[in-house]
Hints:
Blueprint: E1 3-4, H1 6-18, E2 27-34, E3 40-47, E4 54-59, E5 62-67, H2 68-74, E6 78-84, E7 87-93, E8 99-100, E9 106-108
Parallel strand pairs: 1-6, 2-5
Antiparallel strand pairs: 2-3, 3-9, 4-5, 6-7, 8-9
Amino acid sequence: MINVTEQAKNRLSSIMEEEGHTIAESFVRVGVSSGGCSGLSYELKLDAQQQDDDKIFEDNGVKIVVNKKSFLYLIGTTLDYSGGLNGKGFTFTNPNATRTCGCGESFAV
């Protein structure tokens, strides 16, 4: 399960509306890929096409889709959004990460 904060939900909803979609008809694809300064990088994109190996969750009114491989790294992760002066963007709080980089965009397990 991936948790979505209220701030992340609001920002995702705004982005979807800007692209002509609604939060009810689209979903957020969260994944992990090799790379980044800690070894693994987070991926986040809007999508409307489900794949055969996807797991689907819903939290706080947001549908989240994760492929099975990425899911193993993301169990219990919280997706948040910060619009502050010290950094604007989506952040991941991953209880499985043993090390993260300074920018928070990559991690190791």
